[in-house]
Amino acid sequence: MRLSHGYDTDIGRHRSISRPGDVAVSIFTTNNSLEMNSTDIDAEANLGGISIAFITYTGVSKIQNISFAGNDVQSSLPLVSNIATVISNRSQCLLSPNLNVTFRKNENSKAEAVLCVRLNNKIYPVVWTNDGCQQSHENETRVICSCNQLSTFAVLEDVKSVKTVTEILETSSSNLNTPENGNKTKKLKAITNFLKNVENASHLMAADALRLGEMKIKTNILELTVQASPIEIDEKAIAQLTTATTKTMLPWIAVKGSQTSGIVSIATIVLNGTVSGMDVGLEGNKEAIKASLSTDILTVTISSLKRGALKKPVMLTFILQQTRFSDQLPVCVYWESNENGTGWQTEGCFLKSVNGSLVVCQCEHLTSFAVLLATTPIPSRKQYRKVINLAELPADEKNLEKITYVGTALSLVCLLLSLIAFFFCRSTDNVRITIHTHLSLTLFLAEILFIIDFDKRAHWDLCKAVAIILHYLFLACFVWMFLEGVQLYLMVVKVFHSRSLRRKYLYLCGYAAPLVIVAVTAAVNLQAYGTENHCWLSLESGYIWAFLGPVCVILGVRSTS
User: Fold this and answer.
1) Could you give phi then psi for residue 507, rounded to 5 degrees?
2) How far does the chain reach from its first CA to its final CA, in angstroms?
């Protein structure tokens, strides 16, 4: 006796069959077929017949990539077929011979190799595995999968680049635990080389990421995420790569950089901070600050630039792995390894915000990043003004800030009154009045810019522009003061044998000379403008002498005249 029935639903097509004694089972749907032997299932049945259901799911072609687990490595692979489920009213026993499920390939599939997989619901989160399933036949339109148990089945594309990168990960991971890496220095070097190898390997997946969407590979110690875009990029588009413990945001225009052809790609590598062995504190820590690694290590790499400065800063979000106490400050750091040493450094990375266990950093270059929890500030608490209460700042810094703002405000009022007075004295046609007017004007504008407060890290380009303008205006102030000294010299010392300075030379010297100095500085190194805490010339790089040099010359000339 044989009884079979079927029905269609929004999610798929269902076919079931009840067989009290028959052995061979064949069920057909539009895109799939099932062939199996029910002997093993019959053996599990003590009473009555068995019921077998074959369910195929439609509308799954919109699923981009699903998680596949093989050899302790999880990767995201695209579906080549629909999904089919075989269930029975009896226990899930192993079958012999295997059941065969036939799948029709998706019309848009470009898979050169495929994998027959089943759903493994014994672990969480649920993943797909090829354990117990193999491909028995394949042609241009169909794939037959042979599996040894009842489950949910599908066909995935065996992406070559993913397979290659997985092999590199397995090889590189095994090299981390070799006996010669027992020495701490050698171990840190091995970890650094491991991350570099993964960086280089990640871009092998760029072409497939462009075709298939975001791709991921997970092991027990790291997670690799790759995104790609064509070379024609929307300037406002932002690449966002998210994992369980990190989030990376970088404008695609910065990812593209100077690249003019090919595929633009970005990859993040998140290494488990607990097992990384990279909790070594800060390199060159002269203040003996206690700082411990509190997040996973996030490495960011792009196709157009291995390491170095970015056109736009990258935003990095971390989840703290330990509780932050009130006396601990998060410090955004990057990993530096060279002949001088290996460790964490802070240059070019800034703390943007803290919200509970979420820490947002902003960095100007690409490498490996993390967050340390420090009990004292590095290098000063001014870096944390936007995210930590002002009450936490030392009393002397708070008082100095108040004095600065009050003094600058009084100066602006006096300068404004001076400008008004000079405006009404124009009829006197006095050279000194002209000099004082322009001196007051440049100083007034400079102080206005000086007290304007904004999130410098969030508006990095604006901060550079402010630094350039301040450099120009303050230089102009000193040049006009120098011109005032020259005019006084002519009036007092050379009173009988001189004339006043001509206005065209005043304007040429007062405004053109500072412009030349600023233009040369910016042309040599635009990165000299904008520092960690202020929109001004960098103190560390030595470019501060583009301001101090001319000022010292002016002061020296005035003191000897």
Assistant:
1) -65, -40
2) 120
| Positive or negative torsion for Cα 415, 416, 419, 421 | negative
Tell me, rounded to whole angstroms, the distance of Cα 225 from its chain centroid.
Answer: 11
If you ran DSSP here, which 8-state letter would residue 108 be given?
A: T
| Integer Cα distance of 412 and 416 in angstroms | 6
Q: Residue 68: how many CA atoms within 13 Å on its side-chain side?
A: 26
User: What confidence score (pLDDT) does residue 327 get?
Assistant: 65
287 phi, psi to nearest 5 deg: -85, 0
Residue 50 and residue 42 in contact, taking contact as beta carbons nearer than 8 Å: yes
User: Distance between CA atoms of 6 and 248, rounded to whole angstroms?
Assistant: 48
Q: Kindly tell me if the per-residue pLDDT of 317 is higher than 90.
A: yes
Task: Give the C-alpha distances (Å, rounded to integers) separating 512 from 249, 341, 472, 508.
Answer: 41, 46, 10, 5
Quickly count: other Cβ atoms within 10 Å of residue 559's Cβ: 8
Q: Which helix (H) or strand (E) holds 379?
A: none
Both tokens of 405, joined, read 């703002």
**Structure-token match 């028995």, residue found:** 136
**Phi–psi pair at 394, nearest 5 degrees:** -60, 150
Tens of pLDDT along 126-173? 789 999 899 988 888 899 999 988 899 999 999 999 999 988 888 877
pLDDT score of 322: 79
Neighbours of 494 (CB within 10 A): 10
Q: Which residues contact 34 (CB under 8 A, 6 or more apart)?
A: 25, 26, 27, 28, 54, 84, 86, 99, 100, 101, 102
State the average pLDDT over residues 40-61.
69
Interhelix angle 184-202/160-176, rounded to 10 degrees, is: 180
Q: Which of 249, 192, 177, 217 is nearest to 76 (CA)?
A: 217
Q: Which pairs from 495-501 meet CB under 8 Å and 24+ separation? A: 500/431, 501/431
How confident is the model over 421-448, as pLDDT tens digits? 888 776 555 788 888 899 999 999 999 9
**Which residue has better confidence, 532 or 372?**
372
Question: What is each CA distance from 310 to 69, 302, 313, 314, in whole angstroms?
Answer: 36, 10, 6, 8
Q: Which of 219, 270, 221, 263 is nearest to 244 (CA)?
A: 270
Laid out side by side, the sheet with 358-366 consists of 238-242, 246-251, 308-319, 358-366, 349-355
CB atoms within 10 A of CB 263: 16
| pTM as predicted | 0.65
Domains parsed from the chain with CATH numbers: 3-158 (2.60.220.50), 162-392 (2.60.220.50), 395-560 (1.20.1070.10)
Q: For 342-397, what is each residue's pLDDT tens digit?
A: 788 888 888 888 888 899 999 988 889 999 887 655 444 444 443 333 334 456 66
Q: 10 Å Cβ neighbour count for 466?
A: 21
